[in-house]
Write a structure and sequence with these properties.
The complex is a heterodimer of chains A (273) and B (391).
Chain A lengths: L6 E10 L2 E11 L4 E5 L6 H8 L7 E6 L2 E2 L5 H6 L2 E3 L12 H8 L8 H6 L3 H20 L14 H14 L4 E5 L7 H18 L3 E4 L3 H7 L2 E6 L2 E6 L1 H5 L2 H8 L4 H9 L7
Parallel strand pairs in A: 3-8, 3-9, 6-7, 7-8
Antiparallel strand pairs in A: 1-2, 1-4, 4-5, 9-10
Helix pairs in contact in A: 3-6, 5-6
Chain B lengths: L30 H5 L5 H20 L2 H26 L7 H16 L13 H25 L3 H20 L1 H4 L6 E2 L4 E2 L2 E2 L13 H25 L1 H11 L1 H7 L3 H27 L1 E2 L6 H14 L4 H12 L1 H11 L3 E2 L8 E2 H19 L3 H15 L5
Parallel strand pairs in B: 5-6
Antiparallel strand pairs in B: 1-4, 2-3
The chains are: A alpha/beta (273), B mainly alpha (391).
């Protein structure tokens, strides 16, 4: 493993009044790995993303990205450094077309000032054209050519999820945060999305943090997994290791008997068909 | 069927512009064609036709109709401005009347002459028109930061406060505005030594004031309209729309919310200021009590009825709303119980009818066609595009 982590989170504490949303969360992302965060509802998975992208400000701890601290930075500055994100509930700009949504992903790659936009000719035009080409590459990559000129609000859910991934990719991120990329999708759409995630890792070599409830997907794709419950990390390790951890099983299945937990740990880790 | 030519990977930036292949005008062979302002032959021809009709209009219509049209076109500049901040960026502003008034009076003070206690500098249009925009924009930049903290209804109420503040200011600053009930004269529209505000101003043509002003209005509207369209299709316009649709996602993707909201208010106020200055060169007298809430609401109606977040919609809406008074008079001629004088009998007078029409139109459009006149146009266009099929 390389010595310089892409992103390092150390002992982050985030609370809203009396509620501890994150309690001593630490992890680091090395190289182009796919790091998954799992946990029951309310475990603080999305809160981690909100801390990373600057929407929430933790009370304690440190977050470094590309070797520099980003704690307390405003979201658009963190985005400019190369942090891209998708959302659990689609957060696309629904009145804009697919192309315009992806162009929004390239917002900080546009290198002209607002007054140059007024007369268009010159830098504004050439910059728009150059970025449009990059957007078309992403449209090609995600196979959404047919939807190009349609307003995204009208498109099917699975396609919208894909466009949101595309918008994040258009940013040419150094770290990609995926918040439940296959939530609410059918088997076929899930498979498509899994293939895109694998392609991103192998072709574009972008490190990713994945929050997902689809355990099959997480266990298949992730290099490392962190399990959380009530804001506290339970265990971090290889997928098989996390899967058989009694604490994780207890978090998901409630205070069940130790025997049952042991049975799962010993016996068939394979999920029911 | 021939194979479709490949989309070229070359970025065309030089002087040589790519053209669609002969006989297939809708086939795009470069992104530049796709992103062009008028990217279909139909759009190019219809725009050309509209401009030609516009420039011929002074010869086709009577002076009173021309004046209504001219007022509509200048109001459209203001409406485009409101559409930038409220339609594109989604920040509801009721303060538009204040910015228009600021522009109108800046123009009058800089471009007008001193008479009695009125201050005037008698400067040319090259100074008073940009100054009218810039002074209003400066005020907009002061209001803009409020939008960072407030949204929706709260922002609307704060901007409403701005209108009342402005009214008070205009009333009290007697030596600048002339005071309530009196007002002051707007400057003449004199460009390149030609005074368009006086009949027979264009040498060689024996045109009336109204004929001349319409031509000026078309030229200004094209300049302001194209500039606004360019802003709307650039990264700035997209960022405005992204803030309107999803502000958190916009920030996470790299849009500076504060900067863009302030910029939206600044640009919008510039348009309001310049539009206000030009509008009152047609009205002639700038009366301080005119910049009230009703004017702001009229501009909101232009945007709503014309089409939210479209430039052409704002223009259609502005012309339509400005013509409403005239439409009310025409109705009065046909419908027996509407009287054309305030004192005369009948159930309604034309001013009441105009007010009723306003309300009905706003309610009607919000229920039936929220995309406004622009939406109706899109429906007609799609019908003919798809004909004889339904879609």
């Amino acid at each position: 493993m390389s010595t310089n982590p892409v992103c390092e989170v150390t002992d982050v504490q985030l609370s809203f009044g009396e509620v501890k949303a994150l309690n001593g969360v630490s992890f680091s992302i090395q190289g182009a790995e796919l790091f998954a965060v799992i946990g029951p509802n309310g475990a603080g998975k999305t809160s981690i993303f909100n801390v990373l992208s600057g929407v929430y400000r933790p009370q304690q701890g440190s977050v470094t990205f590309g070797g520099e601290s980003i704690l307390g930075g405003r979201p658009h500055r963190i985005a400019k450094r190369g942090m891209a994100r998708t959302f659990q509930n689609i957060e696309l700009f629904e009145n804009l077309t697919v192309v315009d949504n992806l162009m929004m992903g390239r917002h900080h790659h546009l290198n002209y000032h607002w007054w140059e936009a007024i007369y268009w000719w010159g830098r504004a035009r050439s910059s728009e054209l150059a970025n449009r080409r990059r957007v078309e590459e992403i449209i090609d990559f995600l196979e959404i050519e047919g939807y190009r000129d349609q307003p995204v609000g009208m498109l099917p859910y699975g396609i919208q999820k894909r466009i949101e991934l595309g918008r994040a990719l258009a940013m040419e991120p150094k770290l990609l945060l995926l918040d439940e990329p296959v939530a609410g999708m059918n088997a076929e759409e899930t498979e498509d999305m899994a293939r895109f995630i694998l392609d991103i890792r192998s072709e574009l070599k972008i490190p990713m943090i994945l929050v997902e409830h689809d355990m099959g997907l997480v266990m298949d794709l992730a290099d490392r997994v962190m399990a959380m419950d009530f804001g506290t990390p339970l265990v971090t390790g290889a997928p098989e290791e996390v899967q058989s951890n009694p604490d994780v099983i207890r978090a998901y299945l409630g205070p069940m008997s130790e025997a049952a937990a042991a049975a799962v740990a010993d016996g068939a880790p394979e999920e029911a068909p | 069927m021939t194979a479709a030519p490949q989309i070229t990977n070359k970025v065309h930036t030089g002087s040589k512009r790519p053209r669609p292949p002969r006989g297939r005008p809708k086939l795009r062979t470069s992104y530049a064609q796709d992103m062009a302002l008028l990217n279909t032959p139909a759009k190019r021809w219809s725009t050309l036709l509209l401009v030609v009709i516009g420039f011929c209009a002074p010869l086709l219509f009577t002076d009173d109709l021309l004046q209504v049209l001219t007022l509509g076109l200048f109001a459209a500049i203001g409406a485009i401005g409101l559409n930038l901040v409220s339609g594109y960026a989604g920040q509801v502003s009721l303060g538009h009347a204040f910015f228009m008034g600021l522009g109108a009076y800046t123009a009058a003070v800089l471009g007008g002459d001193s008479e009695g206690r009125l201050v005037g500098f008698g400067l040319p249009i090259y100074i008073w028109l940009p100054a009218a925009g810039l002074v209003a924009a400066a005020a907009g930049l002061l209001i803009g930061p409020l939008a960072v903290r407030l949204r929706g209804l709260y922002l609307a109420i704060v901007t409403l406060g701005v209108v009342f503040l402005g009214l008070h200011l205009f009333r009290e600053a007697n030596h600048l505005t002339g005071g309530p009930g009196v007002g002051r004269r707007a400057p003449d529209l004199e460009i390149f030594g030609i005074n368009f505000s006086a009949s027979g101003g264009i040498p060689g043509l024996d045109w009336t004031r109204d004929q001349q002003l319409l031509v000026v209005a078309i030229v200004f509207l094209i300049i302001f309209g194209v500039a606004a369209r360019n802003i709307a299709r650039s990264g700035v316009g997209r960022a405005f729309s992204s803030i309107r649709d999803r502000d958190v996602a916009a920030a996470v993707i790299g849009v500076d919310l504060t900067g863009h909201k302030v910029l939206a208010f600044g640009l919008s106020s510039f348009y309001a200021g310049a539009g206000g200055a030009l509008y009152y060169t047609v009205v002639r007298i700038i009366e301080p009590t005119g910049f009230d809430l009703l004017l702001s609401v009229q501009f909101l109606a232009m945007v709503l009825i014309g089409g939210v977040a479209t430039i052409s919609g704002a223009i259609m809406g502005a012309i339509f709303i400005t013509a409403l008074g005239r439409i009310a008079i025409e109705i009065a001629h046909v419908v027996p119980f509407v009287s054309t004088s305030v004192a005369g009998g009948g159930l309604l007078n034309i001013f009441q009818l105009e007010g009723i029409l306003y309300g009905l139109l706003i309610i009607g459009f919000l229920i039936a066609e929220p995309r406004g006149l622009y939406g109706i146009w899109i429906r007609i266009r799609n019908y003919w595009k798809g004909w004889p099929f339904s879609y």
